[in-house]
Queue: 3 jobs
Job 1
Amino acid sequence: MAFQAFVVRTETLTVLVESCNGNHKQRPTASWQHDFRASTFMENLAGLGLRPE
């Protein structure tokens, strides 16, 4: 299974398209995702010079 995000940049706009898998969600039947907590997604965005704002 793959979760991917795409960043589309133009001269005036930056758009993030992502799968919304997310952290801190209750998924008791999927042990590898249950209450998942990782910071790598936000760290990778920061590495591209992007912020949530």
Note: Helices lie at 40-47.
Job 2
Amino acid sequence: MPSVRDLRDRIKSLKNTQQITKAMKQVAAARIRRAEAAMRAARPYAQRMRAMLDDLVEKGGKIDHPWLQPAAAGKPLGIVLMTADKGLAGAYNANTIREAEKYARRRAGESILWYAVGQKAAQAVRRVKGELAANWVLASKERSMVEQARLVAERLTGDFAAGKVGEIAIVRPRFISMLTQHPEASRLIPIEREAGGERVASLASVEFEPDGVTVLSALLPKYLEFTIFAAMQETLAGFFAAQLLAMTNATDNAGKLIDELTVVMNSARQAAITKEILEIAGGAEALRAAGH
């Protein structure tokens, strides 16, 4: 059985840990509000842009644009793996990385170029099959998230146009609620028409100047840029939600351990006091016996 001193040291260490997890919980709770508000503000715009793009393609007839053609055979597959920069958020990053590995296994036989967004993604890519083409942090101190998304989109657009990749997919966490975030894999380029998506007002009476191809050529890079930006916002919001839950559980678990160890320490202290009393009583009895 551990000594009273050892138990006291363990309780002190747990209290220090509990203070840290409680502080991290409060920080995550403060940041999740801003991150979730930004995510929810970006999501409708992304949905409307995608619906407008689908409508434009449908009403524009057959448009010869590389982003709308079937994926080129024989060229590497580009996978954008998006995670948070930090951990201490339960299985949030691990679930997304695992989904990316499953997606890569489903595309067995193809060479893969990885694009990592988030420090945890960059660390994970080094352990999987394929080449790391580029990596970025999710939340940069030097640039805004919009600028960061633009850099990612420009690199993806350039590599696709140069023929370095024939298809680009993204694996990122999807924010469902404060308690639920699920990883999701989807294709970015070439663009597939979404069935049953939100529809915008009819474009039948709209004339495109100079033509639909030119309009699409200007719209598609913006669409990719904002899609990545919305995914980054969603990833950040999901990270803070997962971290809030993880730190809440850690704080509660530390409190339970402190209570359990306190009971054990009190029992050990009482046993030590009882032992000392018995030793004193035994010594006094021995002295009385020796005096007679």
Note: Confidence is low (pLDDT under 50) at residues 196-204.
Job 3
Amino acid sequence: MPFSKIMAIYEKMMTIKNADVLTDKRGSGEDVGAPVEARTYRIDRIVFGYSRIYDTQAGDWAGLLVPVWDFFGEYESDFGESEKTGGTLVREEHNSFLTINAVDGTVINRESGY
């Protein structure tokens, strides 16, 4: 796939993937009293590589290697409590925020293998 399409998928899927974290649930009574969390993602490294995905025909002992784009960086969580405290910065050196199959544009969950 062209990289421009990969970037469009990234922009859409990062919002969807993090919707549970970024949604204010206090109004519905699900998470009463919890502060609203705002996250700012900073991607500083995009890597083209391979990922193993589960092969249903081969069983647990084998998989398929597919070309992927991985997005790495950091995010800052801000709970809006105080301007003095600032946000919490989390750096993800080795864990990709999102892995996208470079062939068909599907999002791959590296933990589950598909």
Note: DSSP finds two helices and four strands in the chain.
